Structure of MFS transporter:
Amino acid sequence: MSDDVAKPAPGDASPSEGEPRLPGVGAKDDHGFFGQPRALANIFGVEMWERFSFYGMQGILLLYLYYSASEGGLGMEQSTAAGIVGAYGGAVYLSTVLGAWIADRLFGSERVLFWSAVVIMLGHIALALLPGFWGVGVGLILVALGSGGLKANATAVVGTLYRPDDPRRDAGFSLFYLGINLGAFLGPLLTGLLQSNLGFHWGFGLAAVGMAIGLIQYSFGRRRIPDVAREVPNPLPRDRRIIAAVIAAVAIVLIGVGVLLGLITADNLVTLVIAGTVIAAIAYFAVILTSQRITSLERSRVYGFIPLFITSVGFWSLYQQQFTVLTIYSDEQLDRHILGWEMPVPWVQAINPIFIIILSGVFAALWTKLGTRQPSTPVKFAVGTIVMGVAFLLFLPFADGGKNSTPLLWMVLILFTFTVAELLLSPVGLSVATKLAPAIFRTQMVALFFLSIALGTSIAGLLAEFYTSVNEATYFGVLGAIAIAIGASLFLAVRPVLALMRGVR
């Protein structure tokens, strides 16, 4: 968050000469949205509709890729289709790094948020209107870039609505988190319903409409956003902007040439994304650890983050299979019949957001009650990864079954376990990244956590390729055991990891 001086908003009392303008100033007496600043409603709305469009599209994407032409799909091999979905998911989180950089160095968070929403809408329009693989290629690239930019900056913009000492801050972020999960819940339900009754492109079109609604309502409320959200914290010097533009142009040309020469294909796309993410993560760690501007204490804490990073990768490589393996499994083996009516496949992805909405408050109350007695971050990471492994083992009783062989209630149990695992690891991930970050590398450490999600998501796509070639008992059993082993290893190493973290729990 920027500490730069912001311009007074109309009607605000001007700060005294020389007094810094704090984020959220002027919002102290604004309680127009459930006791929160009215601007939160607009950010809540754009994030809710973005998640609606994102999860709505993702709920039908894999099916669109591997369903036959007679079913309205593109007829791809399941393994290749799953790899594309994994590579796309990884690219979204890679784009958060780019979105944060553009905001910090060029345009400010609020502007990047707005134009990212525009790019997302255009991506969904491309999926809805452009035929075949052209629509997929153009649409997914635009949605990935836009979602990364919006995801990286929406939280920062919410933070500017409050003074640092505003007691409403945590409640405001809880409302914001509710918006995310409302969108994630409603998106697959409605796009899945349209896809089942009218076709895939109607579902993609609804995702575009949802993003358009979010963008329109946000546009009307942009004037309420504090000016500090539009400031550029670390402006890129004008002479270096040309260099950055040249690098971006060269990268685009190289990617285009790679596609035209057949070096980048649908079959190897996920592998290339994994390789790029690994290189980026190693480079980030190297830059931070070799910097002469950090103290020995800060360097130790960065080393302490490495086992958490590795564990996070292992966790997300299983968790993100909700959008690959779980979709195929639900399509082919899950009994989705309820009183004679067959539930659309994408509706399965709406189960997890319901549990998140219900359980996030339970976990928050639990950690608050335990206070200083709550488990340390490494313990939460370890247990979350072990629980994720257990979730995969829960597939074993019905593995390799035929059509309608898995009861819907059993899938609900599996997704409940997914959610418990997520709430043990995901909410504390960004928090611990900021706690362990050296003062001059706070943004980069947050980017590293996003890179762990990007890498795990891409690996989830690669692993899904094996799902179609080995028996399910082996697949779920081996991956579940590996996740449990990773979590157990971190659990056994809690003391040395905490020693490296130097007082951060």
